[in-house]
Amino acid sequence: MIVKTGKGLRFAAAALAGVLALSACGGGDEGSDGPADLRMTVWSANEAHLKLLNEIADEYRKNHPDVSAITFDPLPFENYTTTLTTQIAGGNAPDMAWIFENSAPDFVSSGALLPLDDTLKKAEGYQYDDISPATLKLWQDGGKLYAYPFSTSPFGVFVNTDLLKQAGQKTPAELIAAGQWTWDAALAAAGATQRTTGKAGLVIRDFDYKGWDNLSTFWTGWGAQAWSEDGKSCGFAAPEMVDAMTALHKAIFTDKALPGPGTTADFFAGDAAMTVTQISRASLLKDDGFAWDLAPLPAGPKGDYAVVGQAGIGVLKKSKHADAAADFLAFLTNPTNSEKLAQFFPPPRQSQLTAETLAKTNPKLKPEQLQKVVIDGITSGVVKPNHAGQAELSQQVRAGLDPLWKPDADVKAVLDGVCAKIQPLLAK
Predict the structure, then answer these.
(1) Counting Cβ atoms within 10 Å, is residue 79 exposed (0-12), middle (13-18) or buried (19+)?
(2) ∠ at Cα 188 (381, 403), nearest 5°?
């Protein structure tokens, strides 16, 4: 794997903070001429996601002649934040941006985003108080809301039940019924499936030995965390993390339960028995494809748990049409449209977080699946790792973990090395 030089790491790390500091200056609707042409960066190029977003945008424009166009600009998931900050630095900032939880602290504290409270609260029929306070915390600073918590989505396990049965393995539903849905059982079934069918056992989607924060869907079951609650102490060298990463390393290199480095397998194309991801990916399932199920994350040594990915939508201050963008954001996230979007992106609205409500717009998912994975997950889940200065931290963690992805790796030594890299950053 390619490891960036120290100079390269420092440059990449400084980029986000520097760009956001610059983008905090200027902007607003002052000096803009003619109807607004709005652009919002999004992580997904999925046709179903974009179709729904465009339908809502078209509905908004019917009554807003001052907005000539609303474009949704998909950026590649794996380098989304880097591409976004490059656009901002190059003077091509979007009017609105999808923001991941891992970069939320930097965006929110930078002053680069427009406060949204007044616009949302004044929007007719918006019902701001219906938004769960817990979902707002990551996006607030100084009592102001700087991004709307567009999606609060727990991770679950999509299962190719045809492939598991072909391999003679019990399905997660059967294991859950027997009280045996654990990581030990899941990895054993994944390894057996790989050996029997030649297909991949389990894929942690969007990890690919780069997106290390997605491994929190695994290590949280051991009670491990990347850093302490106050963000000041490294958690990678803790016994819980060593145990979790030892189990993961064995699953990859000894049991072949997960595809190894340099190997890819697309669950939704039928190439894997299980994948850890969020319900927004359900749209990739084909009606005439394999039989499938959705299960909660397996229990770890510390018992049942849930991990949540959050995404917010913010309005860039540098937008020439910031007020128009905020007004569209209020429309996009009002109760009616929030319910439509809930088929892909679990809403923060308390009134909509019921199995019955979500089932109306999630025809591929059963109410019990929505209850166990989505609603229960939101209630009890921990958010994926996020920290101020995340760009530099993320680069350092990724580089520090690179030696782990070899068959003969010394797990504890590698994790000690990660802490040696990031503890000075956490202590700032």
Answers:
(1) exposed
(2) 75
What is the Cα 48 distance to its own chain's centre? 18
Write the secondary structure of 67-118 as one string of H (helix), E (strand) and C (coil): EEEEEEEECCHHHHHHHHHHHHHCCCCCCEEEEEHHHHHHHHHHCCECCCHH
CA 321 to mean position of chain CA atoms = 28
| Ranges of each domain in the chain | 36-153+309-382, 154-306+384-427
pTM above 0.85, yes or no: no
Dist CA 303 CA 34 (whole Å): 58
Residue keyed to tokens 């949280």? 220
Copy the structure tokens of residue 176: 């859950």
Homologous superfamily of domain range 36-153+309-382: Periplasmic binding protein-like II (3.40.190.10)
pLDDT band at 281 (very low <50, low <70, confident <90, very high): confident
For the segment 336-377, what is each residue's pLDDT rounded down to a tens digit?
999 999 888 889 999 999 988 888 877 888 888 999 998 998
| CATH of the domain spanning 154-306+384-427 | 3.40.190.10
Length reported for the chain: 428
Same fold, 36-153+309-382 and 154-306+384-427: yes
Q: Please, what sign has the CA dihedral across residues 57, 60, 65, 67? A: negative
